[in-house]
Fold this sequence. Notes:
This protein is of the alpha/beta class. Helix content is 32%, strand content 22%. The protein is built from 13 helices and 18 strands. The strands form three sheets. Strands 1, 2, 8, 9, 10, 11, 17 and 18 form an eight-stranded mixed beta sheet that branches. β13 (276-279) and β14 form a beta hairpin. α2 (32-44) packs parallel to α7. The radius of gyration is 21 Å and the shape is globular. The chain binds flavin-adenine dinucleotide. Flavin-adenine dinucleotide binds at residues 28-34, 53-56, 60-63, 65-69, 71, 204-205, 233-237, 240, 253, 255, 298, 346-348, 370, 372, 374-378, 380.
Amino acid sequence: MTSYWLTSSPPDPRPALAGSTVADVVVIGAGFTGLWTAIRLLETRPDLRVVVLEMETVGYGASGRNGGFCQASLTHGLANGLRHFPDEVETLEAEGLRNLRELVAFVEAERIDCDLERTGELIVADQAYQVEEFRAWAEEAATHGEVVRFLDRDEVRAEVHSPIWQAGLLGSPDRTVMLDPAKLCHGLARAAEARGARIHEHSQVTRLERVPGGVRVRTAGGAEVRAEHVVVATSAYSGWLRRLSPLFVPVYDYALVSEPLAARQLESIGWRGRQGLADANNQFHYFRLTADDRILWGGYDAVYHAGNGVGPRFDVRPATFERLEAHFFRAFPQLAGLAFPFRWGGAIDTTSRFTVTFGQTMGGRVTYALGYTGLGVGASRWAAGVVRDFILRPDSDLLRLRFVRSSPFPFPPEPFRYGAVAAVRHALDRADRNEGRRGLLLRTLDALGIGFDS
Ligand SMILES: Cc1cc2nc3c(=O)[nH]c(=O)nc-3n(C[C@H](O)[C@H](O)[C@H](O)COP(=O)(O)OP(=O)(O)OC[C@H]3O[C@@H](n4cnc5c(N)ncnc54)[C@H](O)[C@@H]3O)c2cc1C
């Protein structure tokens, strides 16, 4: 089942790669990372011959299926940034804010109609023990320049009417805008083509071979491109390139979209600020209004399928859809009876430190960027700038950041991987049911700087 966004955003078909051709750069994957990479390369060097190869259609992967929360954070939130990159967090925060401003400016300049709304994000507490944590976090975040307003129980319920909220943290619109991700993908694809990129759909790359002066890229359809540089932007599907497997696990995240709300239903929930919402549990929900006043409600289950499983057979998970619906009506009992005609899943590229990771292989000819762990809508544009720098600006300051140079702690191979992920998920679930108290396993992993999230 495809996402609500992809259903409502008509496709713009492009031919598969055929025969044998040459390019300066081949980008593999037409999600946000691949499309922004094509654009940023061509902005810097308009004469480059850039070919984008996509195994399905533009936006087929996570980029066409996500919640559409487009955030400034490059580090999966300030708290995670402080934990893993305390020495660089100030730079990364500034880079992230600049990136979001530039992303919005690009959308406006290119007139990409992606229903972008500058709303900010509201994090809600649905557990009493979280209230004091929220208050403390509002103070701590301020010391690092992030202004979040603490809302007490009455204030948060006045903002969005739910009987289960206990407190809230209201963030600034400078840090979160909401958008339709499929419309953004299609707009980026057009912007890349307008700058000279060639995009081929239904062109699955199966092999990279080092050849003199570059790399030969072969597709499942028997076509090939020779290029000086290759960019791998295949996210949670990156198992095809074996050396990337230790860096990430593909984790399935699921979402529902309701029918449009009637005026009286909208009245019953408030939500006039139309913020992106999320709760603060380890297994969290995220939710938002769409431009036509439906509610998207997703998250909670984060499912790893053994053997790095990805593919259409995992897009539908009735047990998760039922659980999500039940949780929804607990949060919004006044909307009882609301139907959810759209349900889907998508694969998230999770790393053990929840942030994008970069690297090069084949003598520096192949550059990869993946691992946003469920927060890549905004960060992918910044990562594309880093990839551009790897290829065109090797002296760039960004390439000296530890955030860019270092790799996350690797995940074990199968058969241990499945068991390890299951054990951590179980421990996170137990912590959520135990007032956030982290057991021995989680405390040990925390001490080692290793985590699991979506
Ligand atoms: C359900 C869900 C909700 C999410 N919600 C949010 C959110 O609200 N905010 C946020 O910031 N992030 C969110 N994310 C994460 C965000 O969507 C991703 O971080 C981002 O889209 C990653 O973009 P990408 O281009 O790297 O990967 P993708 O969009 O997955 O693109 C990879 C592309 O590569 C193609 N491909 C793979 N293998 C090959 C091959 N061999 N040859 C050719 N092409 C290939 C795929 O078909 C795909 O189109 C969510 C993700 C999911 C799944």
